[in-house]
Amino acid sequence: MLAYCNCVPTQVLFAMANRAQIPTSNSALIAMIADEDTVTGFLLAGVGNADLRRKTNYLIVDSKTTVKAIEEAFKEFTTREEIAIVLISQYVANMIRFLVDSYNKPFPAILEIPSKDHPYDPAHDSVLSRVRYLFSAESVSSGRR
Predict the structure, then answer these.
(1) What global pTM score does this model have?
(2) Which of 19, 63, 74, 101 is most deeply buried (CB count within 10 A of its CB)?
């Protein structure tokens, strides 16, 4: 049985829970660009974040979301210093494939993930194609082919 404690007013507890977090130098975020179900699952797992200006680390893509909005979110997430990984649904990545393929920085890492309605296709994954290229080039240069 839970007992009610009069030591801390309820208003103070709610204010503490709703306070925006200030990132420390060693904290890193995961950003999401995906459909509503995928983003909701990751938000329930604790990935979601809103800074002091209420800028979030996710974009929910639906049929009304424009390609320009997806491009802007991708550019924003890849330039924010506190983001370490950008998870993007593969079907969304296909909409901005030119941006995903041209991104060549190691940080933040871009990972394409499947969604509920769109299966994962390894042929379209830019990270996997780069790994295949590196290993094939390495095996050719070392004569192990």
Answers:
(1) 0.71
(2) 74
